[in-house]
Amino acid sequence: MGRPKIITFICIIGYLSVVFTFPQVFSPQIKKLGVFIPAIYGILVAANFIACVGLWYFKQWGVQLYVISVFAKLLFYILANQQGFGFYFNLVSSFIFIIILLRFYPKMNQNL
Amino acid sequence: MLWVLFKESLFFAWQSLVANKLRSFLSLLGITIGIFAIILVFTIVDGLESNIRGSIQSLGNNVVYIQKWPWDFGPDYPWWKYINRPVPKYYELDELQKRCKSTEAIAYRMGKRRTIKYKSNSIQNAVVAGISHDFYKIKNFDLTSGRYFTQNETDAGYHLALIGASIAEGLFPNEDPVGKEIKISGHKAVVIGVIKKEGESLLGISFDYQVITPFNFARYFLDPKSENADPIIYAKAKPNISNAEMMGELTGIMRAIRKLKPMGEPNFALNETSLISKGFDGLFDIIGTAGWIIGGFSILVGGFGIANIMFVSVRERTNLIGIQKSLGAKNFFILVQFLGESVMLSTIGGFFGLLLTYILTALGKDIIDMDIGLTSTNIILGFTISILIGIISGFIPAYSASQLDPVEAIRSN
After folding, report:
1. Structural domain boundaries of chain B?
2. Tens place of pLDDT for every residue, chain B, 413 residues?
């Protein structure tokens, strides 16, 4: 089965969000939060990107990694006390995307 | 098993990097420059910040400055409100010392630039300060030789002086300054002590170029009523008493001393060092953000460079990938092999970027005489960015390589 358009849309949004969030990894604001915070945040951004690549190839592991990275990122924002507009926007949009992805999950490729 | 697979993948990746030295060098150059730009800016900002914060710290967190002008770094400073205010007077110090209960010490200081002479040696524009006795309780300074004034010497205005380390080096290059007679604006004073060298301060508050004299002696060459002498009354809070609490009491006493109406505007300012910190916070944020944007673009360019070189690498080795897969190599093995290569490239690039930063800051430290150095935070950040850029820019080429069909891959040229 080919990749549905809605998943392509989610992937493009994901790639764009990586482009915008990657510079945040070494931003002065994140750096101020702690020595290892940029590294942790960076891992989350990379996981988000890899998940989008997985979704692009219509793989089940893409959905699994996407869900994990979304929850880990939300947890990070809560622990780092960074709950602005971006946090709630991320929360709502991610849950909508997860619901859509779960609908297509059984049709996706199980291999790496 | 996984570790063996990983090790083998990295070995393949390393071989590929060594086989194409010039290409590897050019592609890691982008990351080197990016990491160098970001970490250098962060290192300089951190160095400046720690120097300025150290200087502010030396002013005392629990010290309040009673002055004519408030410290305000905003763009709309209403100077016309303050211009006609009186400067703090020495008698106000006496009154404050008698009435104030929340202070550990209160001291007075005025100062101005004057020429200091000893025989044929002279130093121009040295800061000469006239102080009250308790000044040493407010400002922390150590003496390398000699002693501080006694209460009697400061009260009576003995012609004595404590000199800073740079003044001592300038006036007495080959002799001990203690006991020698110097001239301050033509007035003789005996040096009774030398203040320990403090080094350069970005706020210009080092004691190295200062001469400290008792207030009643300083009146001969400084006018305490003049704003040019910049008179200040310092008040240090007792332990367990907050600045706000002390400022409340100081405000009440100062208003009473100056006989101000209950609802009238105060004609003095109570300044805290936290006001300076706040003023610098904005500046550091701007410098940090500028460095972040400049370095971010360099990193982005470096990342595209790595992605490009990885696509070329996959294209070149398609045949080899086909053979590896037909011999039983798993997709994961191919993925890790190419991802390892990209991460290795960017990490080596990052390492050289950090090395360049280290060399430049080590050279710059001697030139600008300031404590700037690579911190562990910046080293960790540098490697984090390098590894991340390697993963992000190398993942798509690596994954596409891992998905190749072995038969078609072998057939390709």
Report:
1. 2-55+278-411, 86-267
2. 667 767 777 787 788 778 888 888 888 888 898 889 888 888 888 888 887 777 777 777 788 999 998 887 566 777 777 888 899 999 999 999 999 999 999 999 999 999 999 988 999 889 999 999 999 988 878 899 999 999 999 999 999 999 999 999 999 988 899 999 999 988 999 999 999 987 766 666 678 889 999 999 999 999 988 888 889 999 999 988 888 999 999 999 999 999 998 888 888 999 888 777 777 777 777 877 887 887 777 788 888 888 988 898 899 889 989 998 999 888 888 998 899 889 988 999 999 999 999 999 888 877 776 678 888 888 998 999 999 999 999 999 999 999 999 998 888 76
Which helix (H) or strand (E) is B126 found in, with range?
Answer: strand B121-131
ipTM of predicted complex: 0.89
Contact yes or no for A31 and B42 at CB 8 A: yes
Q: Per the CB < 8 Å rule, is A35 touching B380?
A: yes
Nearest CA in chain B to A23: B296
Token pair in block for residue A44: 């989350």
CB–CB of B388 and A27 under 8 A? no
Question: Shortest Cα distance from B287 to chain A (angstroms)?
Answer: 10
**Tokens 């880990």 map to which residue?**
A72
Residues of B in contact with A112 (CB under 8 A): 330-332, 335, 402
Say if residue B78 is exposed, middle or buried (CB neighbours under 10 Å; 0-12, 13-18, 19+). exposed
Positive or negative torsion for Cα B103, B104, B108, B114:
negative
By Cβ distance, the residue of A22, A26, A38 closest to B392 is A22
Name the 3-class secondary structure at B125. Answer: strand
B39 is written with which tokens? 């970490």
Instruction: Break chain A into its structural domains and give their ranges.
Output: 7-105
